[in-house]
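Quick one, T. Sequence first:
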Amino acid sequence: MYISDIHHNSQDRKYRSPFGAVVIGTTIRLRIKVNKNVSSDGCFLCVAQEGCPKELLPMDFIELGQDYGGEDSNKAAGKDSGGFFQINYKVPESPGLIWYYFKLKIGDNIFYYGNNGDNLGGQGQLQDHEPKPYQITVFIPWQVPDWYKQGVMYQIFVDRFYSSRKGITPGMDNKSALYYLDWYDTPFYIRDEDNGITRWTFFGGNLEGIIEKLDYLKDLGITIIYLNPIFEALSNHKYDTADYMKIDPMFGNEEIFRELALEAGKRGISLILDGVFSHTGAHSIYFNKDGAYPGLGAFQSKDSPYYNWYKFEKHPHKYESWWGVDVMPNVNEMEPSYREFIYGGEDSVIRHWMRAGAKGWRLDVADELPGEFIKEFRIALKETDEEGVLLGEVWEDASNKVSYGERRQYLLGQELDSVMNYPLRRIWLDFILGEENARLTHKKIMSLYENYPKESFYSTMNLIGSHDRIRILTRLGEAPPEDSLKEKEKERYLLDPEARELAIKRLKLMTLIQMFFPGVPCVYYGDEAGVQGYSDPYNRGTYPWGREDRDILIWYKKIIGLRNSYGILKSGGFESFYVGEDIYGFIRGIQREKILVLVNRNRQQTWHGEVDPLKGLKGNGLSPGYRAWDMISGKDMSESLETGILRIAPLEGLAIYISE
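C-alpha cells:
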C-alpha cells in the first residue's frame, strides 16, 4: 500500500460537497477514495462539534461502477480505483465549528487520514496516529448590504489627510500638543526616558478638509470612507477616547460631521467609524485621572457613576490597562451601565452617531471584546439601520480564532459582518516578496476560502496598507529592517530610485490582485500618491497634496475604475490556481463572462507556457464568437486563449476579460 492509495481533498467537491462553510442543518456528503490494491475492512468518520464528544460513524463502501450519487462516477473515481467510502453527515442546527478525520482498518492495522501538515485543508495525509482534523464552519445565514460589499474603501487618519482652509480649531485644553507649521514635515514623537509620549504632534487635518476633498475621492472611485477615531481625545490617533459623544474639536463638531455624511452621501460615499470600546483614555470624562473634566471620574472616587466600568486591582492607582499602557485603562464591557451607554440606550453612542450619518462601525481590537458584547452591539446596530455594517479588527483566520482561551464566533452569523483581511495581506506580501511560492500562496488562500462563509469572504476588508503597518511602498522596496536603523535614520529614510522602481512594480501587482479579488478593497490614504515611511509615526505622514506620484495615482484610478465598472469583480465566482513557483492566478466568473488574472512575481524571468484553466474555459462551451482582451493593456488575447499559451514579463500581470 502507498500513501497515494488513499485520498481525500476537502476542497474538491468529489470528496466534500457542498464546498466550504455551510448553513446550520446542511447535509454534507463526505468521501474518501481507496484504490483497488487496498483491502480495507471498514472506514469510520471521526467527527465532533466544538466542545462536544467525538462521534465514530461507519461509512458505506461504493465500488467502482456503482451509483454513489455523484456525476460521472467512473471519471470521478478513476478506472484504476477501488471506490469510495461515503457518508452523508448532517451538521447541527446550531452554529459552530465541526472537526473531522477518517479512521480505516486495513488488515491488522489502524490508519488515520486527516488534514495536511500545513493544516490548510485540501489534500490530506495518511498517518498511523490521530491526525490534525479538517474544519467545517457551520453558520447562521445572513446578508451583508450591497452598498458595502460592492464598494471600494478609503482609510483616513484624519489629522494627516487634509487641513481645511478654514483653519485649525483649537482642541481641548491639551498642554501636550505641538502644531506643525509645515504640512510636508515628517511626524515625530517627543518621549520621556520610559519611552512614554510627552508631546502629541498635530498637522491640522480635519473633517472640513475631508469635505473639501470629497470630489477627489469620488474621482478616485471611492464609495466608502473608513475614519480612524474622531472622538475627543488627547492623542493624534484618538484611540484614547475622552468623550464618545463629542467630535474632537481639532477635527470639527457634530454639525460638521453631519455635513460630511450628507455631502459624502450625495457623491455615493458612505462613512464607517472606528469604535474603540475595549478601553478609554485615562484623560476622559469617565476615568478623569488628571481631573480635567468636571464631575467624578472612576479614578477620583468609587462613588463615580463610571467606577464599575473599570477593572481596579487597588483603587485608584492599580488598574488594568490596554497592553499595560496606563493612559488607556481597560473597561469592563459587560457592566450593564456601560453596555447601555455604548449601544443599549435610545441615544447610546452607536445609535446617536448612526442617526448622525454613519453607516457602519469597525470594532477596534475585536479580540478583546466579549462575544456577547459584539452580539448585542450588532443587534443594536441593525435595529438602528438594517443596512448598517459591522466589521472587526482581527489579524488571523477569523473563522477559528482563539483569544484569551475562547474560540471566537465572529463569522457564525450573529456577530461581525466581516473582518479586516490581515491574513490575506500577509499572503500577498509573502508571495510578491518571494518569501513563499505560488503553490503555498494558493493553499493559504484556499484555506481562507474554505473556512469563511461566502458572505464574509466576499465582504472582507482587503487592505494592503494601514496605520498599523510600514507603508506598503517602503515594504515592497525592501527597505532595511526597522530594528537595524536608528530613529533619525528611520525618520529620513526614502527608497533609492532603483528600489523605488521595484516597489512600484510590485505595488501594481498587489493592487491588481486586490481590486480583482473577492471582498472590499481598501486604500490607505496616501498609498495611491506614493507615500513612504516606517512604522508609527512615519507611516502616518500627511497626504502630499500637489506632490503626488502621478504614475502611481493614475494607476490607482485605472485599477479602481476597472473594479467599479465590472459587476463580475464584485460578485462573480472565484477559482484560485498557480503555475510553477512564480505565477499565481485566479478566475472570476458569472455564467459566460470570465476574468482571468495572473501575476508573475519573478524579478528577472519572463514566463511563458500553458495555463490549464484556459483549457477549462474553452471546454465550458464558449461560443466561437467570444472575445478576449487584456484589461490592463487593451491587447487582444483571443489567440492566447485558443492555444492556452501565455507570456508574462517579469513583475507584470494580466487581467484577461473573456465574454461571448
